[in-house]
Amino acid sequence: MFYHRPADTDYRLQENQWAKIMKYHKHISGKHPFFDLKLQELWRYRDLIMLLARRDFVVVYKQTILGPLWLVLTPILTSLMYAFVFGNVAGISTDGVPKVLFYLFSTAAWTMFSSNISSCAGTFTNNVSLMGKVYFPRLAVPVSQLISSSIRFLIQLLPAFAFYAYYLAAGQIHANPAYAWLFVTSMLQLALLSYGFGIIVCALTTKYRDLTVLVSFGLSLWMFATPVAYPLSALNGRFYLAACINPAAAPMELLRFSLWGNTVITPAQIALSWVLTLLAVLAGTLLFNHVERVFADTV
Prior knowledge:
This protein is 69% helix and 0% strand. It is mainly alpha-helical. Mean pLDDT is 78; it is low at 1-9.
């Protein structure tokens, strides 16, 4: 005697089996809403982000004699050169702050800012072979580069704070502990600003490849337009107004203000800088999200 299951039982069984299959099913499509940033998916791939960040950090200093020691030597040598050229030859004032200390923090912050823009700008062109074979959220690459550049910046802060402690003990500068939190917010803003402009350039280079050639030149001009080698108080007239529009000027000034308390920046300039920073992050993320669907056809 054979037992036949009712039709509704067969239907429920098939439905349960299909639900189990769909649990491990991932549908990948190039069509998605413009404002769908897939942040939850990016969080699920956090292990990949940390792996890519480690790769970017290790590859730079692989097969070098001094290795990561260059992270400490580079800002020191650059600061000594800036102190000689801008401080002694050009005679640019540092508002009473020891020149080496002034340039150590300035160059470390700007190195993080510029290197992050350069690395984010080459996200598609430098990783086209990887992105063409394996699926993962493309935004993971610039985020990992932001993390690796931040790690390099933290290492470069070691000699800067060593000099800071020396000049503080010698009485040549005075600490500003009430505004120490501005140091963190300033570096966060520089990181977000570099991320925003970096992925904007990255999205545009999928169609206009010559922009990659202009990145280094543009960053050099941007550095001289930003109070890196000089304080904001050294500018006046139209040059001061131009620096106020520059979104990187306010965080650079606030970074130094949090350490020794000298600045001429105003709350209005800080607010404008944050508005431009957030707009750059939003515009860059949306543009990147739009271009990543078709980058394989244009790169």
